[in-house]
Amino acid sequence: MNSASERKIEVSADDVVLSFMRSSGAGGQNVNKVETAVYLSFDIGASSLPDALKQRLLATRDRRISKGGVLGIRAQRFRSQEKNREDAFLRLQALVDGAAVEPAVRRPTKPKRSAGVKRLEKKGRQSRKKMLRGRVDPD
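Predicted structure:
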């Protein structure tokens, strides 16, 4: 049952630029010596993704996407460079998969005639109730 919305769009490794740096935080001497953190740059406009998907990705209000349309993901959760690289790719793929789902088209609806009649009847009852609360004139 692979419909068009369920089809997974793979991000090409050629569209991604990886750079490595030292991680921050705990890790002892490993942190000071080894470049395990991964910074993944993904230029949305220059990628091989379909144009509609590019537009939806650029329209998402994600702080990791720069004004120039470049998505930057920093992965430093793990102590090994390979696991961090895999984590960055998984996070990129999750973002692309989220944007690949086309939003449902909203069809405006009209209230039924009976609902309008009910509303007007209730409005009349409320009006009469409020009128009866007014001052009584002695004749």
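Summary: The first strand starts at residue 16 and ends at 21.
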